[in-house]
Amino acid sequence: MGYRPSISRLKILLQIVLVSIISFYGWQWLTFVDKYQHRQVANYPNEYRTIPILSTVKRHIRDTPRPVESFPFPIPLGGVGPDKPLYAGSNQYPFFCMSVDSQLGQPLVDNNAGLGVPIYQQAFAGNESHIIGHSKDCLIETTLHYYYQEKDGSFTRFNFDAPPEYEEVAKIDLGSELTPYIIRVETGSINRYLYMIAMPVSWPKSPERDSSQLWNKRLIYQFKGGSGIGFRQGKLRVRGLIERRSAQLAQGYALVTSTANRTSYTYNMLLAEDTVARVKSQFVSLYGDPIYTVGVGGSGGGLAQYLIAQNRPGLIDAALPLYSYSDMVSQTIYGLDCELIEHYFSVTSLNRSKWSDWNLRRSILGVNTKQGHIHRYAWLQPINQLAAGVWPEYPQGNSECQNGWFGLTSLIHNPRQSYLRSYFSKAVRQQVHWSYWEDMVGFFGRDKSGHANTTWDNRGVQYGLNALRNREISPDEFLDLNRQIGGWKPQNEMAPEKLYTVFGPQKKPLWMSLWSRHNITAPVTNTGVAPRSKASLKAIKSAYRSGQIFIGNINIPVLDIRHYLEPELNMHHVSASFEARQRIINWKGNRDNQVIWVAHPDFDPQQEAFKAMDNWMMNLLSSPERTAANSRPTAIQDRCIDANGDTIAQGPTVWDGKWNARKQGKCHQTYPMFSTSRIQAGGPWQGSVFICHRIPIKQAIASGIYGDIDMTKHLHTLGKIFPDGVCDYTKGDKGRPLDLMPPKHTLNLTPV
User: Fold this and answer.
1) By Cβ atoms counted within 10 A, which residue in 104, 155, 290, 655 is the most buried?
2) CA 134, CA 132: separation in Å to the nearest integer?
3) What pTM value is reported for the model?
4) CA atoms of 721 and 272, how far apart (whole Å)
5) CA angle 237, 241, 244 (to 5 degrees)
């Protein structure tokens, strides 16, 4: 008898067909709402859309002197900050102004040539006949604002014409008597981005910026995260920032930040650093030097601290990275693997039923997976399988790749997918390359097609190598995976995602190119092997030298904090902290200046962390002979924390495990960590091999790279899949400049 599908499968198939028909006809009238249509950006001529390539940095940016500041700080009230970075290259265009979104008013008119956002007469905002000019650089005047905390904990704008009653204002203890909790906020623009300075002040009788009697001489620099591709100023959420740091402001800390220091708006770490330096210059020119500056911020806001402390010592004196990664460029290595592997599991695998075991998927992906945990967009998979010509199956599990990294490829890697489309006119959307690589083109350069070079490469990568060694997959399954996996098409060949809105504007998009599958290379006819992706060696070397990659050269106190989010399949996984640690160890031979805390999600250790860091910093500053390592109080150790805030375990061995080839410590047992696809492919835990050194297949077999699995009978097939050999991770990263290798210590490059 022939194959007969079950009733349940036929039911799923009918549902898919019905949804597809509704979606096709619904697309005729349901579209994405352009909520910024009334202030779209005009076209820019070519010279405004090109960032000149920076001069080649011949040594690490840490060792490159920065120019002397040329702007006359402080910016006066009513004045405007610098519109160009001091040393971070040319301005990027197009650039969307967001001061209106930040409730800071329209930017200033800087041209009448139609470049940038239209500026309206205030009384006729949105009326095209009352445009008074345009703004391409988004500058705003420097202004003061005041907020007070009400007794319920909320913050309210202080109105001098109708001030609150004294009794209505919450009180804080900053000395001998309770003080009304009032925050003075300065906002303006520096390097075209929005900045903010906040500190507690006495009851104001009129706006003035000079008083700082309540400041405890400690400065917090707030960094923030997110995945971004540039091209916009960013939204400054003043009230939200005050609320986020309310506990520290109530202790007398001052707070500064800039939208240039939120990675949602740019991952250009030289621009971020340039802006930190200038925001601090504004602060110091008004209030003097702080005792110390401590950075704080999560995800991208954590990696920014690692990189800025590495690249320009002295800007921040201590770091509190939250949910951090080492750097953005390194995360793309396995992040861009995710959708390739998920596409293989759901579409191209010769044995798709095998991958219904989500625990087995983990052996390939590395990141956590959960059987029975259904992703909210799981319904897209059978629709896409049907479109791809394979039998549809509804997934019965989920992974961090799907739950956390889904859409990363189209967001940061696809130059034709403009997720900022609602900000810009149609002509601009069609002309600009919308990718993370384009945001970094000043460092990475362009290829012959005019697209930005990339640092992503998977030639020689043997996906699932550890699973093969552990006999979780067979040699035939290993070969099929690596034959089909492929890579990403060249930038100039990529196409936009096929997105349709099926259940109302901005809701439930029907993603007909799931996993960005139309941009994945397909097996070629003569070999049956899907081509892999090739990175630019020049771009990788530049990424190292320009400080976009964390190499571990950091000497300030670092208290790396995160919640344990692996059960939630959250992308902020524990192993990222130890990726940074391994790089520090590789560079310095020890990690004495980095401490890692991991807490249960129900307990927030930040307030305790600020207190601990203050003790650490006061020890460090007490004597010029002290270092970050020998000034660390003995009470500040690696630890894991339960839901009540109690320490489960602490000490130098509590996080031992596979990452350092030791027996698992108590914290590692309590909060298990997972790995990544490149670690599962035999790579090192430090996670920074962009292009691997490759060795011939016969040499790989002879060296024992496949463990006790006999792959000699598969030599021919392996040779077709890997014509230039397979990765030998013991040799490190082929793209890393030799002068940036660790100076004295033996690299731990061999995976466990």
Assistant:
1) 655
2) 7
3) 0.92
4) 41
5) 140
pLDDT in tens, 160-188: 999 999 999 999 998 878 999 999 999 99
Query: d(Cα 669, Cα 656) in Å, to the nearest integer?
Result: 9
What is the per-residue pLDDT for 601? 97
DSSP 8-state symbol, 124: G
Separation CA 336–CA 330 (nearest Å) = 10
Q: With contact defined as beta carbons under 8 Å apart, do 222 and 257 qualify?
A: yes
Pairing of β 155-157 and β 143-149 = antiparallel
Angle at 606 between CA 605 and CA 607, to 5 degrees: 100
- Helices (H) and strands (E) in the chain — how many of each? 22, 22
> C-alpha distances in angstroms, 273 versus 223, 295, 525?
11, 12, 49
DSSP letter string, 510-548: EETTGGGGGGB----TTT--PPPP---HHHHHHHHHTT-
10 burial type by CB count under 10 A (0-12 exposed, 13-18 middle, 19+ buried): exposed
C-alpha span between 375 and 41 (Å, rounded): 36
Q: Which secondary structure element, helix H or strand E, spans residue 721, and what is its range? A: helix 715-721
| In contact, 642 and 541? CB cutoff 8 Å | no
Q: 412 with 45: CB under 8 angstroms?
A: no
Please give the C-alpha separations between residue 401 and each of 113, 507, 580, 672, 714, in angstroms, as whole numbers.
Answer: 45, 22, 21, 18, 30
Beta-bridge partners for 727: 694
Tokens matching residue 107? 């930017």
DSSP-derived pairing of the beta strands 292-298 and 218-224: parallel
| Contact criterion met (CB below 8 Å) for 100 and 86 | no
- Percent of all residues in the chain with a pLDDT value above 70, rounded to a whole number: 89
Alpha carbons 632 and 619: distance in angstroms, whole number: 7
CA gap 453, 459 in Å, rounded:
16
| Chain-centroid distance, C-alpha 415 | 18
Closest CA to 137 of 258, 14, 213, 233: 233
Contact 147, 183 (CB under 8 A): yes
Cα maximum dimension of the chain: 90
User: The dihedral of CA 660, 661, 667, 673: what is its sign?
Assistant: positive
**What is the rounded distance in angstroms from the CA atom of residue 386 to the CA atom of residue 58?**
52
Q: How far is CA 545 from CA 57, 171, 739, in A?
A: 6, 49, 10
Contact criterion met (CB below 8 Å) for 459 and 529: no
Both structure tokens of 250: 């109530």
Per DSSP, the three-state class of 514 is helix
Residue 35 is predicted with a pLDDT of 33
**CB atoms near residue 493 (< 10 Å):** 12
Query: Would you say 299 and 226 are in contact if contact means Cβ atoms under 8 Å apart?
Result: yes
Strand order in the sheet with 292-298: 155-157, 143-149, 182-190, 193-201, 254-262, 218-224, 292-298, 318-322, 558-563, 594-599, 639-641, 647-650
CA nearest neighbour of 92 among 40, 134, 138, 51:
51
587 CB contacts (<8 Å, ≥6 apart)?
Answer: 551, 552, 553, 742, 743, 745
Question: Is the model's pLDDT at 530 over the cut of 60?
Answer: yes
As a whole number of angstroms, the distance between CA 697 and CA 527 comes to 17
Give which of 381, 278, 294, 288 is closest to 339, Cα–Cα. 381
| Mean of pLDDT values over 531-546 | 96
Residue 55 pLDDT > 80, yes or no?
Answer: no
Cis bond upstream, residue 605 (ω within 30) = no
Helical (H) or strand (E) element with 509: strand 509-511
Burial 107-140 (b: 16+ CB within 10 A, else e): bbbbeeeebbbbbbeeeeeeeeeebebbbbbbbb
Separation CA 508–CA 382 (nearest Å): 15
pLDDT digits (tens, 9 = 90+) for 452-476: 999 999 999 999 999 999 999 999 9
Q: Which residues share a beta bridge with 147? A: 157, 183
